[in-house]
Structure formats: structure tokens, C-alpha cells
Specification:
alpha/beta; 16 helices; globular
């Protein structure tokens, strides 16, 4: 019933305008192959990208869907002010938590950043663990052409607030089981986006993604993935969560709530934030929240690994016994045939 009501709000104007913008963006790709550092959370991607940027004269384009939001620093493992002092980063802190950054928004911003970096004769390095962002950019998906309706999105978020993300996830199963199967029931922002696309167009977002894959146009990029054995990765995840808490993650979440950002916002339902919002609202104990953050992060890392393993163009590096400088050196040596050199 929900989607029958909302489909009456169908508008093709946003669809057409987004499609026109997507045509505009397809020429913004550097002549030099773009470097990519990807992998699951807690594999040390940012430190490696910084070491690599320092070695080759590069600038880093963020490909983490949560690091785009202002004020969400500790819980997203955003590069610190010290790390940003000597390395230029792009697409960090580009929106407040109550302003959604879509895949299409990020893709346009990334293309513009890559073009600007190359124009300065610097080396572009795309770094992050959001697989959908990377695939949309590197395979030149036309996700900008998927329909959007802010009004439908607002109504859907209202349903999430009223009935919960798992309830809307069940509704998504009825119209797009492919997308529902790959999304966590609490992943409100992506569930809402998938429902928004269906209610606005009558077509599941998975269908748009299938068409993108069929029209796949891989762009010039050298892709490196960082990997760790599962037991070591899980231990790193647990240690990183503990470090985030020691560094003030609870205060960060509390500050965001005090600034008026609702715990029902998509970014506030991301890893670490959702659980601590529940703790701060007395819905669970601190110990329970911490255990849940660690467990959810381990599950998230497993999904990331599955996603990235499907990309056969990624060159995998086991970083178990290596520090960030050593990993950067391995990447640099692997790049030599492409004509890269230290700056």
C-alpha cells in the first residue's frame, strides 16, 4: 500500500536532468591511470595511501561513504588533522549528516577532483572501502540516471522513524529481493534509496545496476586491494573500536545529537553511531553497545571482502607482516611498468 500511494508522485524531470548531468561527466578522466587502494575496514588503507602519496606526489580522493559527512570523524576513522597536514585529501567533510550524499553526487565530485589533480600534474589516488562508490566510478556506471525524489525520500525516512529500517527492508524484499538480499536490515540509507528508486520509476534499483554492469566501461585504473587473514582482521577491528572509544567516540555521537542531528538520519545509523545512539538514549547498556559495534563491523568487513573479491582486476596484497611504508613500496614497484616515478 505504501508504494502504491507514493508512486502517484512519479516525476520524470529529475530523471532527465540527472541523465543530462551524467553525459556531462563522462569526459572528466585523467590520461594517467588512476591508482586505487581498497579493501575491508581496518586493513590500513588510509595509512598506505598517505605513504604512497608522499612517495609519488599524489593526492587522495576519499571513497568512504561516511567520511563525506562533517562531524563524523572518530567513528569513520577519518584522516586526522595531522595526517592531512602534508597530504591533500578530497571529498572529506562535504556535507552535514542531514544532507544525503548519493552515489551519483559522490561520483560527480570524484570525477571533478580527479581531473583537477591530473591538471596539476599530481597523481590521483582513490582510497576507500565503499565498493559501490568505487564500482560506479571505475566502471563508469550511469547511476546518475537513476531517478530521485526528495519528497519520496522524506516520506520513506518517516516510515523508518515510525516503523524501523527492518520493516522497510521487508517491504523492499517484496519489490527488489536482489537488493534486499545484499543489504543489512538496519542499513536505512541504502534501503530508503532502493525504495525511492522503485517508487519513483517502478523499476528496481538492481535492474539499473544490471544494465550498468552489462554496459561496463572500465576506466584506466590500477587497483590494489589490501587483505588480512580473517582472525587477524577481526582482532584489528576489535582493537580499532576500542581505540575509537578511547579517543572520544561517545562524546562525538553525543555532540552530534546535541547539535540537532536525529539518530534516525541515515549517517547516524552507520556503524558505531547507531549503537551508541541507542546507548545514549538508554536503549542498551554501554557494554552491549560496544559488543554490537564490534560484531557489526566484523560482519560488514566480511561483506566488503565478498564484494571486492568479485573484481578480478584488483591486485591483492597481504599486509599481515607489512607496515604502511612497506605496502606503499610494494605498490610503487608494481606500478613501475606503467611509467610512474617518485616525485
Amino acid at each position: 500500500m505504501l508504494y502504491l500511494i507514493l508512486r502517484t508522485r512519479l516525476r520524470f524531470g529529475p530523471y532527465f536532468r540527472a541523465w543530462m548531468r551524467s553525459l556531462d561527466s563522462r569526459n572528466r578522466w585523467p590520461d594517467t591511470p588512476v591508482l586505487v587502494v581498497c579493501g575491508a575496514t581496518a586493513t590500513g588503507k588510509t595509512a598506505v595511501a598517505i605513504a604512497l602519496a608522499e612517495r609519488i606526489g599524489g593526492e587522495i580522493v576519499n571513497a568512504d561513504s561516511m567520511q563525506v559527512y562533517c562531524g563524523m570523524d572518530i567513528g569513520t576513522a577519518k584522516p586526522t588533522p595531522m595526517e592531512r597536514r602534508n597530504t591533500v585529501f578530497h571529498l572529506l567533510d562535504i556535507a552535514p549528516p542531514d544532507q544525503q550524499v548519493s552515489v551519483a553526487d559522490w561520483k560527480r565530485g570524484a570525477e571533478e577532483a580527479l581531473g583537477a589533480i591530473a591538471a596539476r600534474n599530481r597523481i590521483p589516488i582513490v582510497c576507500g572501502g565503499t565498493g559501490l562508490y568505487l564500482r560506479a566510478l571505475l566502471d563508469d556506471w550511469t547511476l546518475a540516471a537513476t531517478p530521485a525524489s526528495p519528497q519520496v525520500r522524506i516520506e520513506l525516512m518517516g516510515w523508518v522513524t515510525h516503523s524501523g529500517a527492518p520493516w522497510l527492508h521487508e517491504k523492499l524484499k517484496e519489490v527488489d529481493s536482489v537488493t534486499a538480499d545484499r543489504l543489512h536490515p538496519n542499513d536505512a540509507i541504502r534501503i530508503v534509496r532502493a525504495m525511492e528508486v522503485f517508487l519513483t520509476s517502478g523499476v528496481p534499483i538492481s535492474r539499473f545496476q544490471e544494465e550498468d554492469r552489462a554496459r561496463r566501461q572500465p576506466r584506466a585504473a590500477i587497483r590494489f586491494g589490501l587483505t588480512l587473514p580473517r582472525p587477524l582482521l577481526n582482532a584489528r577491528i576489535d582493537a580499532r573500536v576500542d581505540k575509537m572509544l578511547d579517543n572520544g567516540l561517545v562524546v562525538e555521537v553525543e555532540t552530534l545529537l546535541q547539535q540537532g542531528y536525529s539518530g534516525e538520519l541515515g549517517p547516524m545509523k552507520s556503524l558505531g553511531y547507531k549503537e551508541l545512539v541507542e546507548y545514549l538514549h538508554s536503549k542498551r547498556s554501554y557494554v552491549s553497545a560496544v559488543e554490537e559495534i564490534k560484531a557489526n563491523t566484523r560482519r560488514f568487513a566480511k561483506r566488503q571482502q565478498t564484494w571486492f573479491r568479485a573484481d578480478l582486476s584488483i591486485q591483492w596484497l597481504d599486509v599481515s607482516e607489512l607496515n604502511s611504508a612497506e605496502v606503499a613500496a610494494q605498490i610503487f614497484n608494481a606500478m613501475a611498468p606503467e611509467g610512474y616515478r617518485a616525485s
